[in-house]
Write a structure and sequence with these properties.
Helix content: 40-55%
Number of strands: 11
CATH topology of the largest domain: Rossmann fold
CATH superfamily of the largest domain: NAD(P)-binding Rossmann-like Domain
Distance between the termini: 59 Å
Strand order of the largest sheet: 4-3-2-1-5-6-7
CATH class of the largest domain: Alpha Beta
Shape: globular
Bound molecules: nicotinamide-adenine-dinucleotide, magnesium ion
Number of helices: 17
Order of helices and strands: EHEHEHEHEHEHEHEHHHEEEHHHHHHH
């Protein structure tokens, strides 16, 4: 039996992970499950999977969670500290599926106890890539990508030498607004940005797909995970989301990874790695699909992609700044306090401010420095938004 923990169990990725492990209950021993405000879902899954402990992110929900688990013997806990403590409990495989920078500390803790970490939480590598890789290496822990593009690249690289890689191409559906005239984006609403043409995901990543902030995070994630140079990474608009990524080799060969847009593929690959077993995902019928389309992304339309280049050039803590500013701007867009296009303006202004802080530019990448910088960038983002409103 493999001991398994899932952080962000109540979310879109977490539920897909539970779907896979619940099909083979004899194979898994569930240690920890975490969630947020949806206590009913968290308690339901903790009960049916017989977890050792369930943790909610919110301390004010602890009583509710305790009550929902009453009589089961399953421990209940709450808050960020309880999350990292639970991640330190011995497990063989841990899913990192919290959304946002909050996923970083539990992921690092799981690596420290030597677990294999399935990484859906892309913010982990964006905010603290070198720290995360260093931690994995020091503790002999493995990091497996669960983002669909990165899982695709990982699979295309099996048996290959990184020195033979010329470029990595990650695809993007283009999100909700890919066919909208540029001038209409100004007035794009929250409801319009919250639906994705191909994927069914959490609200935050769905909006990030419309703005391409998701792809921007993924470009940085590619750089951090595969250690390639920024100019070796390309983004390609591919509206059908069937090809998830391609790897180009020195001899001109391109290896593409195709699959239906279903995250259970990338999750299952990481769960079963290095083996492959049956997965309940749709098989592509290419004759029926008939054709696949591609086009280059328009940088005027997607400023997030340009900002990601700046972040890769700067390195260090700039990824943490970029992500934190983006999270704050997204909060404000969700609260209908700023418009769709203002999100990129906020992030750019915060990155400009970071450029004036040589103390932070030269700071060492430790968890403490990442968390302090994340906090500061959120304060700056709020200040920028107040200025823009006034
Ligand atoms: P979601 O919003 O559906 O779920 C997020 C989970 O994190 C929930 O369990 C929620 O309770 C928990 N959470 C939220 N804020 C928290 C906090 N401050 N502290 C602790 N827990 C918190 O999100 P999702 O779509 O499942 O995405 C999860 C992660 O996976 C994100 O980093 C996302 O970018 C990445 N990802 C998602 C998909 C997808 O298809 N959904 C694909 C690739 C990568
Ligand atoms: Mg992705």
């Amino acid at each position: 039996m493999r001991r398994i923990s899932i952080f962000g169990a109540t979310g879109s990725i977490g539920q897909s992970t539970i779907d896979l492990i619940a099909r083979r209950p004899e194979a898994f021993d569930v240690v920890a499950l975490s969630g947020g405000a949806n206590i009913a879902q968290l308690a339901h899954d903790a009960r049916r999977l017989n977890a050792d402990i369930a943790i909610t992110a919110y301390e004010n929900r602890l009583d509710m969670l305790r009550e929902a688990l009453d009589g089961t013997g399953i421990e209940a806990a709450a808050g960020a500290k309880a999350l990292t403590e639970a991640a330190a409990r011995p497990a063989d495989w841990v899913m990192s599926a919290i959304v946002g920078a909050a996923g970083l500390a539990p992921g690092l803790e799981a690596l420290k106890q030597g677990a294999t970490l399935g990484l859906a939480n892309k913010e982990t590598l964006v905010c603290a890539g070198s720290l995360v890789l260093r931690t994995a290496e020091a503790h002999n822990a493995r990091l497996l990508p669960v983002d669909s593009e990165h899982s695709a690249v990982f699979q295309a690289l099996v048996g290959e030498d990184m020195s033979a890689v010329e470029r990595i191409i990650i695809t993007a559906s283009g999100g909700a607004f890919r066919d909208w005239p540029l001038k209409d984006l100004q007035s794009a609403t929250l409801e319009q940005a919250s639906s994705h043409p191909n994927w069914n995901m959490g609200q935050r990543i769905t909006i990030d797909s419309a703005s391409m902030f998701n792809k921007a995070l993924e470009v940085i994630e590619t750089r951090e995970y595969f250690r390639v140079e920024p100019d070796q990474i390309e983004v390609l608009i591919h509206p059908e989301s069937m090809i998830h990524a391609l790897v180009g080799f020195r001899d001109g060969a391109l290896m593409a990874h195709l699959g239906a847009p279903d995250m259970r593929h990338a999750i299952g690959y990481a769960l079963n790695w290095p083996e492959r077993t049956d997965l309940p995902v749709e098989r592509l019928d290419l004759a029926k699909i008939g054709q696949l389309n591609f086009r280059a992304p328009d940088l005027a339309r997607y400023p997030a992609l340009r900002l990601a280049r700046d972040v890769m050039d700067r390195g260090g803590l700039s990824g943490a700044v970029f992500n934190a500013a983006k999270e704050r701007a997204l909060d404000a867009f969700i609260a209908k306090r700023i418009g769709f296009l203002a999100m990129a303006d906020v992030v750019e202004a915060v990155l400009d401010r970071f450029e004036t802080r040589s103390d932070l530019i030269d700071a060492e990448m430790t968890l403490d420095n990442v968390e302090k910088t994340d906090h500061l960038a959120r304060v700056w983002a709020d200040e920028v938004m107040t200025q823009q409103a006034g």
